[in-house]
Amino acid sequence: MDMDDLLQLSEIERDALREVANIGAGHAATALSQMTGRTIMIDVPEVNIRHLEEVAEMLGPPDTVVAGILMHMMGDLTGRTMVVLPESSARSLCDILLGRQNDSTVSFSEMELSSLKETGNILSSAYLNALSDFMGMMLVPSVPSLVLDFAGAVLTSTYLSFGQERDVVFCVDTAFRVEGEVESLQGEFLLLPDVPSLQAILGAIAVE
Amino acid sequence: MTGREHIVGLAELQVARGAGRLITLGLGSCVAIVLYDETTRTGGLAHVLLPSKIMSRIRDAPGRYPETAVPVLLDAMADLGAGRGQIKARLIGGASMFASLSPAGVLPMGERNVVASREALATAGIDIVAERVGSDFGRSVSVDLATGKVEVSSVRHGVEYC
User: Fold this and answer.
1) Which residue among B49, B50, B138 places its CB closest to the CB of A149?
2) Tally of domains in chain A
């Protein structure tokens, strides 16, 4: 599979990838729900196939500040997973995880950063475990890496630093949010398989 | 009248003269090549993605690579009246955002972009007067065309000038 195949993924293949992401994100949302004691809703996953030039805007204006927790995916598939939270949601999550009043997290010190990183680790691991079971594959997560930075820098650096695709890039993006609570807590689960692994995913779920 | 803001997107380049600003947002491993001629107050900015065009199939986007961006910027600045001998360069960006996930022994993409940008400027005979490159955080850049002053902002360090 190369760039041209990527641009010509059929609707059936896109549906299959959405289904895979839905299973992963569903499990990650359950984990987040258990960690926070809140009901977490997920949206229908979006299959994004874009020119690299366009990814800077994918998570919002490129100078929006986000927390991104990135892990490599290894084993039968290669690629990455990322949990992305807008800065305000990262603060809300810290409030909840650290048992604080709403709006009391004002800065990100070691304690907050460590909580966010561990949460990203747990959510991505839940996502990958669900994919492993569903596809009958062995998937191993790497250690997580957390950044709190401009959205444009986070996503373009992810694509440019890892993997071989520099022209057209791929990800499945599932948005999540807390349902009916006072906190604004939302974010996205991203699955970023390397392009050769996309073929393996489609093969594993018998979409040829 | 402070002039308009020219937003330079990923892999784009722009030149302008007089009042206003050249701005690019959210540089991670990418590098902003900023050129400025103070005698004519002409500036140019390219937001380059990759150290070499051989890493991509896209050939018709000079702003993607230092080797193509620098000559195009210089020609466009000359068209606006800039004198080649007066043009100075600044480099911003080239970070390694997820350094702990990078494979050992491989030069990170940000660093490769910085090296390639320096080479492209050396080939063109343009001196670099300031750099804010490397480390592990993103940067945004705003060039004041009236003064040549370059504002570099980051989540980590706020606003700095170079």
Assistant:
1) B138
2) 1
> Model-level pTM greater than 0.90?
yes
Chain B residues in contact with A159 (beta carbon < 8 A): none
Q: Specify the CATH number for the domain of residue B21.
A: 3.30.1330.200
Please name which of A65, A105, A99, A103 lies closest in space to residue A84, comparing C-alpha atoms. A65
- Number of domains comprising chain B: 1
ipTM of the modeled complex: 0.93
Q: How confident is the model at residue B27 (pLDDT cuts 50, 70, 90)?
A: very high
Residue numbers in B near A65 (CB within 8 A): 155
pLDDT tops 70 at residue A81: yes
State pLDDT tens for residues B79-126: 999 999 999 999 999 999 998 998 888 899 999 999 999 999 999 999
Q: Which residues of B are catalytic, by number?
A: 30
Q: What is the CATH number of the domain that holds A156?
A: 3.40.1550.10
How far is the C-alpha of A178 from the C-alpha of A39, rounded, in Å? 6
B105 shares contact with chain A (CB less than 8 Å): no
Number of other residues whose CB lies within 10 A of the CB of residue A122: 18
Integer Cα distance of A170 and A37 in angstroms: 33
